[in-house]
User: Fold these one by one.
Assistant:
Number 1:
Amino acid sequence: MSQVFHEIEKKIIASLRDNPKQSPESLEKSTQLSPDQIRRGIEWLKLKNLAIVTESKSSILSLGKNGVESLTKGLPERRLLDLLKTGPRKLSDLQNELGYVFGPSMGLARKNNWIEVSVDEISIKNSPSELLGEKTLKLIGNEKLSKDKIDGNDLSGLLKRPDFIIEDVIKTKEISLSDLAKSIKISDSVGGIDVEANVPEVFVARTHPLKDTIDEIREIFVTLGFSEILGNMTQSSFWNFDALFTPQDHPARELQDTFYLDRINAKKIGTPEQIRKVSESHKKNWRYQWDINEARKMVLRTHTTCVTIKHLAENKPDEARIFSLGRVFRNEKVSYKHLVEFNQIEGIVVGKDASLRNLMGIQREFYKRIGITKIKFWPTFFPYTEPSLQTMVYNEKLGKWIELFGMGIFRPEVTKPLGITQPVLAWGGGIERIAMLKYDLGDVREFYNNNLGWLRSVTKCQ
Amino acid sequence: MPVIELSYSRLQKLIGKVTKKQISDSLPFLGLDIESEDKDLVRIEYSPNRPDYSTDYGIALGMQGLLGIKTGIVKLNVKKSHNYLISVNSSVTKIRPFVTGIIAKNGKVDDKTIKQLMTMQEDLHFGIGRKRKKSSIGIHDLDKISFPLVYTTTTRNHKFIPLNSEKETTISEILVNTDVGKDYGSILGQSSQVPIILDENENTVSFPPIINAAVTTVTTKTKNLFVEVTGITKEDAEDMLAVVATILQSAGFILESIKITGAKNSSPKLEQRKMTVSISLVNQILGLSLNSSKIISSLKKSRLDAISKGVNIICTIPAYRFDIFGPLDLVEEVALGYGIQNLEPILSPSQTIGKINPVSLKLKSLDQTMIGLGFLEALNSSLTSKRVLYDMTDRDSTKIISVLDSKSREHTILRDSILPGLLENLSKNIHESYPQKIFETGTVFATENPISEKINFSGISAHKDANFTEIKSIIQSALNIGFGIKVETKTATNSTFEDGHCASIILNNIPIGIIGKIDSKIIENYKIRVPVVGFEISLSDSVLKN
């Protein structure tokens, strides 16, 4: 496989393959690229781990004013020794001829025991052939020279003297290719870009995550042979409670659990026969004075079961699979696990062969399709079903069993007054709870916060 | 659902040979949800239809059955006695017509028993007693009472020393000054006469359904109990009595009968009932093929008795199981005794073909179109607040539909429009990057016969270059591409929108919505710093119209 490179990168790689270690300046010359192009090219290659940049510091030496003078005239001590070559000289003569270097040169010569000083005469004792520093002076000459090319010992004497040596510290870069770059194949294609670089984030327009879960659940039940029906969110108490055998003094019907609409009552709640038979069932089984005005009170539905029971009462099918999906309401304090308004799915199966085991089988199949396989059933109680069960599903992350859908078979006290003769399996539950598991959310309110940060970033569930 | 606290070690003593694990594994299969556990203590939630599970005595009876330690019906042994008589004065008929009761002797009353009896009493009052309205209970120290008693009425000036008090108080004072008086006084209405139970010496025993007299208080020194239940119907009172009698017998008391006469009252029978269920119904409903002996043994595990008679099972039901209305309830008892964990789910092939509702299909199609146009879907509650719906957007609030006694201030009014919620959403997102384009479809409500529910569709776009042209293009494309519907705009004014940048959306000469640039004052209210344009149309009057 060959890789596509930018023209700049190609040239730099080619040059480095010829000459493995180069400074940027050297690359400029060999590639004919501008300093800025070289800088960018090196940067790209570095990010791809193709170029290695080693930075080093080095000192460049040149001669100062006194150094230059010593280069032409000789070091002060050399000048002294030259004057003494021909024989002993008077102190005052030397002073006149050497000028201001007389002092320093005398000091060095005495210290090194090169000369002998009598009352007013100075003569050579032993003369060295080469003086410390003379090599360096010649080596640097009038040029600039890297410090590491000079003998340190020879240099040290000069460095101590004022204005002999000028030292400049400079940083240098050296570019070389990584092992990867040495072997990588370079594509011939022209105009390639850096496809691995970071790009700005764009936001996808999408349906709401909760809606995605609702749609998924809807489709599962359709494929299981269920048809969707719709119904109103505002319902008379008759269909929300009375038709479902919930007595009028039942705690669930109190203001503190159910939302009643302020001063709004239904005029027509059902057929006279439905009303008569439902009220008789209540009077007989719950032993109280059933009040039609109580049944007229409009509520925000507390479950979608009112929609399915109304459908059954109107259509009386012998065989049916139906579901209803939508918002339901509870007068609760909003918290991380409770909403006043949430979505519920509720389904029924009508048929002479409908049994509790069928009902359990439909649940198991549904959970399997949303990816939940560890389930069990526990008995429970609902006013309108008998027997009644609830599904418990195991959540691996939380390490515990969570209650999901409730289910049961509609009581004859519910179905008989409405003229429904076949057994009716019913099940239902909240959708947010499932969506919370799917999106790994700890706070159910997030679904209705419409926080764009979350909506734009949350991963879709498969 | 009521919650009670139990002790495993106490339950073990009551049930018999059983481990703690067996108990905790089996509780859910009695229909009892474990709320929490802490070493020996366990908090469980029980269903209101089983008031016998309001004490550990009752739960032990159920558990013995389920585990096969003791099965079959729990018989009440009530010793006939002529020592205890309550006569009823007809003056109670219009207020609280019925009284019933029982004597329970030679029991051990320790702190734990008192605690269990107290919770039972409270739960019975709240549940089947319907907050003491239907029936209420009083448990007394028998030895402090001189029979015969009379259940009659008295005036609100009647005085006695009530429970938890040391001084004589009038009925009126009790109703005004005590918590129970305040909570339940309304049951008695405005009548000048109130019910009272007096003993032979005219001492007050109880002021039902409010409070007992202090003198009969049950303590750890109490040996013998007198239980009275008053109620609106004889059945209500006797149902409650049946639960209490069963629990007291299980707690080791010996029951003795009370004779009750007068004003249509009679002595309680606490009789068992018989009910028939066909073997075929059991098997049809459960999806099993059990034979009669398996059904009978399952019913016995549910603490009922049963015999087989031809194709039927005849079941005997104790008085405290008044939650059993008909044969289907017996089917559930079979299922519980058989063990829900033993029911294997089956999936029979569907005979029907599933179908998505056409409305859902159209809404889904609209969602897809809006996504294509670059809009993100939002979801808001239909129950919202006056602030969001009207105050912030300056809309007309004369026709609001509100709910009663909402526990949440943000959820009090049903929405009649979706757009205000979307503006509220934008205001919560001013720190997120722009452009921000969101839409929502959902139900809106209006008062009409009594309530009409329609589906609306709203979208808004907020960014520095947002303008009328952009949003008009959006709604026209969405409706045309999605549904082949062509709409026009016609100049309009609306308090939410800026004058000169607002129009009605017209379909076949009928207005179906509104579109325009949101008024700068509203944008300011919401502290949004970019222009916002938006629309809202009725889908029920356009796309979803037949």
Number 2:
Amino acid sequence: MSAKPEFIDAAKAGNILARKCVKCGELHLATVYFCKKCGSKGFSNSIIKGAGKVVTYTIMTVPPAGFEDLAPYAWVVMELDDSGIRISGFLPNIQKPEDLPIGMAVKVIGFDNRGIVLEKL
Amino acid sequence: MEKVCVLGAGSTKYGKLEDSISDITIQASVDAIESAGIEPKEIQAGYISNVFGVADKQVHLGPVVMSNLGISECPSLSIESACGSGSVSFREAFANVAAGFYDAVLVTGTEKVTHTGTDWTTTYFSYCSDFFYEGQAGASFPGLFASMARAYLNEFNATEEDLASVAVKNHENGVLNPKAHLRKKITIDDVMNSAVVASPLKLYDCCPFSDGASSVILCNEKFAKEHSKDHVKVIGSGRGGSPASLQGREHLTTIPSTKIAAEAAYKMAGITSKDVDFAEVHDCFTVAEVVDTEDLGFFKKGTGATAAQNGETKLNGSISINPSGGLKSKGHPIGATGVGQIAEVFEQLTGQSGERTVNDAKIGLTQNFGATGASCAVHIFQSV
């Protein structure tokens, strides 16, 4: 059974569902099946607060289908505080690079047909 | 392991083509067969790389190609690995010839998408990303590479103008290539003043969507010698993988699969990056070529952009990068690109590359990846 429904529910609550390898302790997003470090399959769930900092991003002005009315917006790679896990998502209403310096604090606020949705803290 | 050679190569023009995907795939295959000087019945298997045949109402292209070559009994298969489909297909063909299963095979890459328009291509190409995290959240391919570009500009002493110099250089080369899609010279100002697609990348930082097909004949050394045609030796072949999504990567200014593939290919060839005379690399966006030339070992990490700006990668510079014009100017028919790079190397090493010839070249390298480099193949070729 895929963990995606559970992952999506967590994101809707502003959290990221991670999996901790019971053998070596490595943290992964809940969508993996085997540990990337030791190859083990045993995980315990770990709910991580969806707050972190911008690692990199783009501001989309020529968007794919479904995003036409939302441009410009940012697509962001962020690193979660404490865990070091990275996730990426949609961040609306970003016009120019000055609006979103690298390192800026952002958080997960939901999940919908735009995937993981972020906002500036 | 059998020694493997490229015996012939052919390509359609890259650009907006009128003919159907079946027709262009067959045309490129016929060109390669004629270039190799063989009869179709000498082909023992066909490898067809393609991503969006569905856009032109034809998937399962292999039997259509084989039937039109008069060899319907010949086995074939289709391979999809996003923009890296062509080189992966070549690799599978290489492995089968090297293993002794076949003496001679046809490898043809093909794509026909320009009739669908920019909206369709932007949307469907995004399905090559790790869609749950990337395409679904509004990231297009320009957007994903723009994110890498921002990371690069932030981490190293490089400017958007440095990236733009890659586009200028590749257009200079493409002007010399009669089969290139965009055959016009451009300036740094043209790039900087072009419309922003996904900041910091602008339209002229991006390769075009192209139609086109390329084909090569691959055979063992005995077969090549019996046919006494110009041929080149395949001396290295490597593949690698990276985390499918950018978020899964520790560093956003390098592509792990390129490094893995290059290391394997250099090892098989028994050479280092210093022995390579020229390379056809995967410059889907200007930043990609910069990252590629570092990952392949031509420049130290963080110095590739300045090297490009200084002219080191120009035709007959310290290392000629993308003498064909690259994806940027020659064009990027995604299923064909990896095979097209190999066709270029064949032409370069057999004296058929005209004005864009790399002087005294003996060793050429190709690097072609899928998506943001989630998959990659590197091949190394040597003149006979």
